[in-house]
Amino acid sequence: MLLGAALLAAAPAPVRALTLTRHPWIALQTTTSVLIAWQTDAPAPGKVLYAANPLLGWYEAPEDPPDRVNHSVTLSGLAPQTAYFYRIVCGPDTLTTGSDAFHTAPIGAAPFRFVAFGDIGAATVPQFEVAARIDTLNADLGILTGDIIYELGEAQNFTPQYFDVYRKTIRRIPFYPSLGNHDEYTAAGQAYLDAFYLPSNNPAGTERYYSFDYANAHFVALEVISELTTPSAAMMTWLDQDLAATDQEWKFVYFHVPMYSNLGVHGDDAVIAAALGPIFEARGVDVVFQGHNHFYTRTFPISGGVVVDAGQEPDYLNPSAPVYIVTGGGGKSLYALVTPWQDYEAFSKSAYHVTVVDVNDRTLSLAAVQSDGTVMDAMTITKDHSTAVTVSTFQATGEPEGVRVRWRASGAAGNAAFHVYRAASSRATERLTQGGPLVGGPDFEYFDESAEPGVTYAYRLGVIENGTETLTGWVEGTRGGPYRFTLGRPRPNPARGQCEIPFTLEQRSPVRARIFDLTGRLVREIRAGSLGAGPNSVHWDGRDERGRDAPAGVYFATVRAGADEARSRLTLLR
After folding, report:
1. Is the pLDDT of residue 16 over 60?
2. Cβ neighbours of 237 (radius 10 Å)
3. What pTM, to 2 d.p., does this model score?
4. Rounded mean pLDDT, 281-293
5. What separation in angstroms does the CA of 314 have from each of 43, 119, 131, 364?
6. What is the CATH number of domain 486-572?
7. Quick one: fold of 112-382?
8. Which residues 6+ apart lie within 8 Å of 452 measured at CB?
């Protein structure tokens, strides 16, 4: 129903017999609809007056039920990419002035900005400072990487530690959260589910994980809240199907416990990486946002646990794998970083911050912005679809006599030729196909018999099409393979204070070794980083986590690499 402009001119200042206990916020924004929610201190019927131009009169949305203090009204039939002013009315009381405004989502590849941040809900001074910075950034939406409410996701903390903190921003743009481990501690996250209005487009009909579109991007929020635990099979099946079904240009996924991170405090998680990484890579995910660690980390693109396209840093053209961001500096106390960085870390810093992403058609610009406005890290991704050739199933397999490189070319493969390039750590890149590029296809093979035994090499292709060469990402292979994951006996054993724990990796993997005593108590954890295929080892200096000499006795050394794990017994003498 349209209310006349005379009502606007004659409208008195808000009368507040009722009190707003939770000020209005925006949710479930689409191109033609939006949900507006708020809370009052007493039950009353609630409605929203809205208008693209208040001078021409207000429209009135239907009232919600009269017995509520938790109010939500959906406005529908709106115009895409249009700003609307709105006013909250409960019963006879006008609760807001009508100066608040939101906008509907755009259609197609319109430019937009979103913010990503997490580990927030403690009502600390840094949280308010980051929130103030976010409000100045004029984003179109926000995604949250978990731990919305500390300490335990209590219902009574949502207003003072979230809704009040971001009140100025969420009255005009939607924030889409993901569950953190702290959010789940109280009643399995029920307070979190009660506080938000989120999509529920998975087979279980739950808001614990979901997806939505904005402009030419597809966003997926997952429930990943337990360390060293494979996410639920049902969710991973849905994730794979959901990503396969979208034809959006950009694909973003966000959740709490990180797959790849600086190793400070919680570190990375090989189990989660082994479960989700293949889906992200197969379905073309561009950037993965994570939390849990209270700092910032950005990785190089990572495929199969291996860094690819690092030579393009920080401006990437058609990267061949996702970039992983840890953005957990939203307000809770910061964590210290571990140095030296892992080989997959492009940049890490322990600072309060928000990650800002601008998407403009096929170009993405990402910046990590500290609460004082300082840009501490930046990168870009550009997608160029001009090539008609796609390389798939690119792999390098170690054999006793060399390394066999295989790949498949699709699209206009008959018009393409390929060079094979090789590099080893500390060595320059060399072109192996000196006699000219390989042609034919669609299946190609190159056997590198000059590879030295036991040395891990990185291989990439040069795709030559219409006189222009485009380089792919790297894959790794080690002559002497294929290898199987095995754990050898520590040496020496018995050990007098120090020992080496040998093992063999099937493929490059992040490695974590743990020393346990006979009672099962963790004595020492050793994070070895990402190691290449073939024989490897970690060193234990015979000390516990506090640097004290471990007492003489029998211990167990457990080595985990990706999804593989094995245990070996050792004796320590003093």
Report:
1. no
2. 13
3. 0.71
4. 95
5. 54, 26, 27, 12
6. 2.60.40.4070
7. Purple Acid Phosphatase; chain A, domain 2 (3.60.21)
8. 479
